Amino acid sequence: GYVVYNTLPTYFNTLEEGMKAFSGIRDQISTSGGQITSVNLSREAVSFQSAVGSPTSIPFASLTLLRVFEIPKAQEPWKWGVGAKISEKGDSVFLAAKSREAAEKLFSILASFAAAAGAPLELRDVGSSAVDPTKKDLKDNGLKDSKGGVVQWVAVGGPSEKAGLQAGDLILSINGLPVDSNREFQEKVWPTIAPGTGVETYDLEILRKGTPRSIQIKLPSLDTFPKPPATLNFAPPPGLPAARQEQPPKLGFTLRSLEPAEITALNGKTGAAIAELAAGGEAEKAKMQVGDIIVACNGKTLPGPKELGALLLPGENTFTVIRKGLQLTFKINPPVASY
Q: Most buried pick, 20, 80, 167, 287, via CB within 10 A?
C-alpha cells in the first residue's frame, strides 16, 4: 500500500531557479529506468532521461494532478515519490525519491514548470480518491447489488482527512447525487461539481462497515494557496538585447480534435489535425500543412491533441501524417532548453 500526502508547492521565481533546484536533487530522483542522467525542458513538456529506456515525459497541457506519496514497504531508499496524472484517461507517470524532502522539492519544481508553461495546476481538491467496490466491499457493507464508490486513499492533511473520511468508506451520494456506478459518476457527474466549478462543500452519505454516516468536506479558501510569481515564465528576462529576446520556434503548430468526417476517413485510427502553423516555425519548414492529420509520433499512436506532449522526445521527432488519404512522414528537431 501507499500513503498520499496533501502538498502545496513552493514556487520558484524563475525557470533557472527551478532547474538549479533540480540539479541539487538529481541524484535523489529515479525513473523506472534508474537514476536520471539529464533533463530537457520546453514549453510543451519536461523529459527525464535515465541510463536505461526511453525518456519519461510530462506534458504540461494535459498535466492535471501531482501527488507526493510514500510506499512504506518499498525497497530502500526509494520509499517516496511523485505521481503525475498526464491524460484525461488517467495515464500517470511516477518518479521515485530517496526522501520526503526530495519528493516535495520535486513537486514544487514540476508545479513551477507547469505554471511557467501557462498550465498551472488546480491545487484545490478534496484530497481523496474512490474506485469501484469489490464483492468483499459490498459484503462488508451489507449490500447485495453493486453501487457506490470505495475510498481508495485519503491524503494526509487534506480536506477529506480533516472531515473524517477514511479509506474503505463506501460513498453512496455526493451533494444529493447518487453514486450508482463509481466509474460513471467520475466520468459524467463529478466534472460538473469538481473543485473549480464553484462548489465549495461536499456533503457525503457513506457506509462505514455497514453503518450509515454523513460527512461534509469543505474546500480551503483560495486565499490559502500559493500563486506563481509573474517572473516564472519562458520569456527571457527584461533588458536582454532584442536579438536575444527572440524565442526560438518550437514545433511550430497547434492541434485540434478531429471532425466527424475526418474520424470516418481514418477508419478507426485516432489522431489530431493541425489547426495553425507558426510562420517560420519548424513544422512550416518541414512542409507540413494546415489540415494534416497526425496519427503517430515517434512510432506511437496519437490518441488526441492533449496526448502529444507525452510522446515527444528531446531532439528529433518523427510524425506520421495523413494528407488527403496519403500517409506521409515528417521529421522535426525543435529547439529545447537542455540542462
A: 80
Q: Are 110 and 132 members of one domain? A: no
Neighbour-count burial of 78, counting CB atoms closer than 10 A to its CB (0-12 exposed, 13-18 middle, 19+ buried): middle
| Cα separation, 253 vs 234, whole angstroms | 18
Nearest alpha carbon to residue 49 among 330, 304, 334, 315: 315
Q: Are 75 and 9 in the same domain?
A: yes
Q: Which amino acid is at 92?
A: S
Q: Which of 81, 116, 151 is the last residue of a domain?
A: 116
290 with 37: CB under 8 angstroms?
no
What does the alpha-carbon distance between residue 93 and residue 70 come to, in Å, rounded to a whole number?
15
Report residue 301: phi and psi, to 5°: -60, 140
Three cell numbers written together for 270: 485516432
How much is the pTM?
0.71
Domain span at residue 296 reads: 248-338
